[in-house]
Structures are given as C-alpha cells and as structure tokens.
What does this fold into?
Amino acid sequence: MTAETDTPTATPGPDAAARAGRRLPAGLVAWFQAAPLALVLGAFLVLPIIMIVIVSFWGATEYSIYPAFQFDNYEFLFSSPVTYKVFVNTFKYALITWAVTLLLGFTVAYFLAFHVRSLTWQIALFLLCTIPFWTSNIIRMISWIPFLGRNGIANSTLISWGVIDEPLEWLLFSDFSVILAFVHLYTLFMVVPIFNTMMRIDRSLIEASYDAGATGWQTLWHVIVPLTKPGIMIGTIFVITLVMGDFITVRFMSGSQSANVGRLISNDIGLLQYPSAAATAVVLLITVLLVIGILLRFVDIRKEL
Amino acid sequence: MTTISKVRYSRRSLLKTGGAALAASALPAPMVWGQETKNITLRQFGTGVSNLNEVGQKVKEELGFTLEMTALDSDSVTQRAATQPDSFDIADIEYWICKKVWPTGNLQAMDTSKIANYDKIVGIFKDGKLTPESTIAQGTAPHTVGFVPEQGATTFADEPTQWMTLIPTIYNADTLGIRPDLIGRPINNWSELLNPEFKGKASILDISSIGIMDMAMVCESMGEIQYGDKGNMTREEIDATFAIFTEAKQNGQFRAFWKTFDESVNLMASGEVVIQSMWSPAITAVKSRGIPCVYQPLEEGYRSWGGGIGLSKSLSGMELDAAYEYINWYLSGWVGGFLMRQGYYSAVPETSKEHMSDNEWGYWFEGKEATGEITSPFGDVLAQAGETRDGGSFYDRMGSVACWNAVMDENQYMVRKWNEFISS
It folds into this structure.
C-alpha cells in the first residue's frame, strides 16, 4: 500500500533462459508459469460466463428450463420499457456515486499524501480509513436505516435543533439514501488507488511547479491531477462496476421501491426464470465492458503504472 | 434485516441449528418396531413454516426414526418438488404449489383409509366447507387440489375420494396489520391501505404471488374492480389492478415494500409504517416489544393460506409405512397444539385440544378472553389475562375467508407486471 511497491520483475535475462533451456525450452517455461492463473481464470471466470451466455438463449417454463436457441429473452428485454428505465436508473446511481466518491476520495488521498508529513502518521490515518471495512457490507448499509428513519437520530436531532418542524421523509427509502449508502460503501475504493499514485509523484516536480511561479490551484490542476490519472481511473473502474452490479443496496435503502439492473436479475432468479436472468446479465456485462473500454481510452493504465 | 430485531420467531434461525440438534439428539427411542425402524431416515423439505426443529426431535422420541428437515423458499420448493423427486421423501408444501407440482407425477396419493383421524379433518380440506352453510372462497381452495380420482392420476377430483394429495398440516387467515396508537380510529376495510390519510405510511409485501392477492382485496374493497376470480385473474384485471397501485406508488402512498418477515416487523415497530400487509407471527413479534399492533379483521374477509405434506413417488416399503406412521402422529395432536399455540390452526383441532390448557384453547381457538397469561411454545408472553385474539374464534376467522393463495394461469404475465410496478 505504500509507494515502495516494486515493479514486477522484468522478463528473465538470457542467462535465465539458458539455464532453463537445459531442461525445457524457454517458451514452454513461460507457458507453465502462466498456466496456474490461466486455469483458475478459465475455470472460474471464463467458463461460467460462457455458460451464462449459453443459458441466455434457453427457454423456461414456470419451474424448469430447457435447452434451445431462441432470442425470446432478448426480444422481451429490449421491447420492454422497464428495461430502459432500469438501465437509466442504474447509470444515474453509478454516475452520481462516482462523482461524489471521486471528490471525497481525491480530497482524502490528497490530505494523506501531501499534508501529512510523517510516514507513520500516513499509515496510521490510512488504516483508520479502512476500519469501517472490518464489518460486513450489509451491516454498514443497514445501520443507516434506524439513523435516517422517520423517528431516527438524524430527524430527531434536526427537530431538537429547530432546523425543521416535521421529520424529513426523503432521508430514508429514497434515491438519496441509496446514493448515501453507495458513497459510504465505496469511497475507500477511490481513496486507495489515488493515494497510491499520489505517493509515487516525484516531490521535486511540485517544487519545480512552485518555483516556476504556479499557484496552489495551478499546481493541483496541471501537475498533480494529470499524474494521478491512473489512480483515478482504477478507482473509477472499481466504483462504476460495483455500483452497476449491485442489487442489495438498492433493495434495502430504497425500501424495494426503486430498481436497478441487478434487482431485475435477482427478481428473475427468484422466480426461476434463469434464461431471462442470464440474458439481462449478458446485456449488463456488455454495458459495463463498454463503459470500461471508453474509460480506458482516456488513460493507458499499463503505460502509466 | 436482523440488526434491530429481537424476533424470537425467526424460523430460519431455528432451522439452521435444526440439523445439528437433530443429529445430536441421542434420546433412546422406544422399541416400537424393533431395531430396523431406528435406521429409517425420512427426508422432508418445505417452506419453513412448519419445518420446526421441535417436531423432528419429538419424532425421534416417539416414533424412533429420523426426520431430516430442509427449509427452502417457496420458489425453490416448487422447483425441487417438480424436478427432483428422488431428493426427498416428504414434501411440506402449500396447496397452490401442489396445483403446480402434482401434474408432474412426482408425488403419490395417500390412502385415506390408512389415516386414523381422517374423519376429524376439518371440512375446508374435504368438501371445502367449514360448516355446511359456508360458501367457498376464491383462489386455490385446498379441497380443489386435495384429492385425485385414483392412485397415479395427474388430474384432481371434484369431490373427496379415497386418495388424498396432501395431508393438511397448518393454515391461517391473513389480513392487514395496523398500529392502532398511530392511527387512532377504527379500520374496517381493505381499501384503507390506499387511503391518502396514510400517505407515506403504508406498505405491501414484495412477493408477487401473495402481493397481488392483497392488491385485489384492496381494489375490490375500493369498488374499483369486480373480479371474476381473484385467484385467477384475466390480463385486463391484472392491468387494472396494477394501474391503481402504480398511481398510488407514484403519489408516494408507500413508505417501502417488504420481502422478509423481519423487515415487516421493523417497519411496523419503528413507526415508519402504520398499515401494511402482514403475517400473524410478525404481529406477535411487534407486540412482544411492547408496541401496540393489531391484526385487523376487515369486512371483506381474509386472504388465507394452507400447507400440507405430500409423499414422494419413490417412497415404498418400510419407508412408506414410516411415512404413514408419521402422518398419523402428526394429526394426533402434539404438533397441532404446538402450532396452535403460535396462532396457526391444525387440520384436526379436536386432537390438539388435549395438548393445550383450557386457557390456551379458549384464547386461540374459541376467541374467548384469556384467563391468564398466554405464552408461546418458546416462552414469550403473547397476551395478558382479559385480552382476546384479534378476529375472534376459529369459526369467525376461517369462516370469513375471501380468497385463498393461488397460482394464476396468467402467472408469468402477472410477474412481469409486478416487476414493472416495482421499478415504476
């Protein structure tokens, strides 16, 4: 988690290749080295996704599914106005959550990286940020419910301060509470990568910027932000994929009153409509991949890391 | 949603420990059938309402064989009964599930001549009439799927025969739950759920097959829709019902929808909601926190449900005998008493009476004032002396059932509309 992370070891030199060559050809060694990860990813990522794609063309009765090759599931999905509404809703949640977590995450990371001087304090404060993550996602989310409720702590405090006369209804079971929970749950995923890249910025660049007469804001905008881009991009990918794939936060925090794509899928699974759930999942997967593809156009993470 | 709840009725949590406790119960079995029966294990699965750990223990004690219980949600139960007949011996399912599953031929009918207490089973499960004067409610009434003409038949019989599909175990009548302290006036109709007076303080359950019934009760009570059969709506009726509820939802009538038992308890106990669809033990759970909550009887009547146990087609020989033994024991009273003391009803109330005190029988079954404290089988105090049960006696409650839980011909269409409603 600190700046001193080593870059992965470079390709083995000619000596290593020669040594390995005594027993096995170099190419084969590379294959063997890649094999474990490839097998794990193949078995637990690629294969299930292929299965999902296959099942998305199957048919379903009320309590069973049967192999087929039909486009019914997709046809229904694309012809239903609900689908578009729900996708728009999903993007709305993702976009707002992304903007808020980026602002918060960048600020926290900036404070940790540039205002806290000693490494000990940096580590201590960074660990402090992670403490809430020792409890489960669900607990952190649900603990908002009594806090935001009609007779909850937030409302009774505001009333006793005389800020409001009537309890605020929109605090709970609304888009506000959904986004609040998302921000609470996922800000750390922004903080970590941004902090990581910030720690690797060469301090002399900042000094040079000041020496050249730049103001604090100019330094931030023209030096720090461009150099932090890979971190921002990694954080963005985390937050966007997490929010777009979520269903439980939306269900609990909206009191089941709004839906995103994840809930559409979970409803289908609950009703044993696996092929229809699979079709929705495929469309969601493609959408998320497109979004990430577009994001990666802006920053070449490989080059920058 | 278990954070702020101290619900004792969490059946699932009881069941989680169920398997372990069952295995650990080393109680000496009476040598009724000799050594061989002790090795018999019957695998039962069901929705968890009656899949109680205590029943398994008692079976081991009194009958000597092992009853393995698995709790699943009703969709999984349906799927398993329909597709994996060899994975269970006894299916504990609801009557509307039976309607879906029986045609697959995975269950075998039971010979009523082998059921000792058959004659004492209440009329609801035989000719459909609680008393000779009763009218039969809409929906999947249990007697309509309760019999088949002969062993092996996949269609249902119109009248009682010697072959029963499910032996009824547990049933009840559901209605709306209210917070009388926060409403402050009498509530007598289902239509009150959409009364603008309760804007932002109403809730309905987000389980489509049951939620649609509650919606229908409300729309009919409002005088907006007259249904041919609430348990088997036409597409037009479904559309009209959702139109009314979607409008109400967009006007902010609902605070939230609930999907689990605990959610319904928390919504009510915290005062977020003052009127909502609710289940009987949830009312008890709210009350046990010292918060007033009433299971309000309504003029239009109740929405009722019932479950029973069915036998797998692959059950035969000694296991089949053991299953009959189990069914006879089930109806002989102990289980009935255990369930009735939680507010459910038993299929053979007479035999349960012997396993309840006069006070308990009077309170739960006859609708009389309690003469002393009423406690649940788990030790919670549910009512004080002088209180009466909401809705009154067995005949008052089960006599005014308007509709049974059902599965419609247009089920898939309804489910899609339900999804639209949730995301609208």
Observations:
- The mean pLDDT of chain B is 86.
- The first strand of chain B starts at residue 41 and ends at 46.
- Chain B touches chain A at residues 1, 3-4, 73, 75, 78-79, 82-83, 100-101, 200, 203, 206, 208, 249, 254-259, 266, 270-272, 411-412, 415-416, 419-420, 422-424 (CB under 8 Å).
